[in-house]
Structure formats: structure tokens, C-alpha cells
Design a protein that fits this description.
single chain; 0% strand; mainly alpha; 196 residues
Length: 196
């Protein structure tokens, strides 16, 4: 049964909605990657500091900000995925039992019998980056936060020990800085007064 005019108008509307949701998904994925790249750069720069304790707080704040932005953008990305699936299922129901060669593809016919777009492996793989990117960034920022805590604790322990035992540190530094004394000469002088 070919598509009639009301069906064609409905199909165009559904496909426009799918296109709109894909545009939103692309925009949200771009926002995610842009925000994360602007946070990774200062995080990497702070990790090169010689005195890491001075930059611990800013580095931790960057990690918390990275986690927050990832969690904030994750929900809108998932919503866009759900809306795309929703509209594709509606399209599949509309195209069920239709044999119009212009509008109906083989993928549409398969989807019509499944009533679910999640079976479509090509569709799932095409969205895998935007689906998995928030989770990857979230794992990265959690590991980065753990790294900062471990590194600052180790650095703080060394500095704390130097603070508690400053004299032993000074002695060690004095010993390492002291010049090597010149070799002493043994003088075999006979006292002239004693032999006299």
C-alpha cells in the first residue's frame, strides 16, 4: 500500500523532528567536548608546578568543575537519544505495511516489525560517541581527583617531616654542601730544642 498525502506530510514532520534532535545532540556533544578541553589544559599546566601543594586547591576545583559539567550535560544528551529513538519508532509505525519505494527503505521495514530502534546496530553505533563520551570524561575527572589527593598527600608528608625535623634537614644539607677538606700533610720534623 503506497503512502498517501496525509502520511507523507506526517512522515516529513517526523523526519524533521529527527533531524532537529540530531542537531541538538550534535550541539550538546560539541558543548561537552569544548568544556572538557578548556578544563584539561589548565589541569595539565597545574600538574607541572614545582611546589604542588600551592596548586592543589585550584587543581581540585578544576576536577570538581569537570565532574559537574559532565553530569550537567549528560542528562540532555541522554534525552536527545531518547527523543531520536521515540521519533524513529513513530516513523517505523507509520511506515508499517507501506510499499512506497520513494519514502520507505529496507531499514524502515525492519524497524516497523521490531517497533524499537534499539535493535538497529548501525543506528546504535552511529550514536556511540555521544552516548559514551560523558561517561569517559566522568571517569577521567574522578581518576584525576584521586591522583591529586594522592600526590598532595605524599608532597604534604614530605614537607611536614621537613617542618618537624628542620635541624636534621639542615645538617644533611650542610654535609652535602661542605667542601672536601684538603689532604693533610704529615710533617716529620724533629724538634731542634729537644735534640740539642
Amino acid at each position: 500500500m503506497p503512502l498517501e498525502d496525509p502520511d507523507i506530510a506526517r512522515l516529513k514532520f517526523i523526519r524533521d523532528e529527527v533531524k532537529h534532535e540530531f542537531n541538538l545532540l550534535a550541539m550538546r556533544s560539541t558543548i561537552l567536548v569544548t568544556c572538557q578541553s578548556f578544563l584539561v589544559v589548565p589541569f595539565a599546566i597545574l600538574n607541572t608546578a614545582q611546589n604542588f601543594l600551592w596548586v592543589t586547591i585550584p587543581a581540585m576545583l578544576i576536577c570538581v568543575l569537570g565532574i559537574a559539567t559532565t553530569l550537567l550535560i549528560r542528562r540532555p544528551i541522554r534525552t536527545a537519544h531518547q527523543m531520536i529513538d521515540h521519533w524513529l519508532v513513530k516513523q517505523a509505525r507509520l511506515l508499517k505495511d507501506k510499499d512506497d519505494e520513494v519514502y520507505v527503505t529496507d531499514r524502515d521495514k525492519k524497524a516497523a516489525h521490531q517497533n524499537d530502534e534499539s535493535y538497529d546496530h548501525v543506528h546504535r553505533e552511529s550514536l556511540s560517541f555521544s552516548r559514551n563520551a560523558p561517561l569517559a570524561f566522568l571517569i577521567f575527572w574522578i581518576l584525576a581527583l584521586i591522583w591529586i589527593l594522592v600526590r598532595s598527600t605524599a608532597t604534604g608528608t614530605v614537607m611536614y617531616n621537613e617542618f618537624l625535623h628542620p635541624r636534621s634537614c639542615e645538617i644533611k644539607s650542610e654535609q652535602s654542601d661542605a667542601p672536601t677538606p684538603p689532604a693533610t700533610r704529615v710533617l716529620n720534623e724533629t724538634p731542634s730544642a729537644a735534640t740539642g
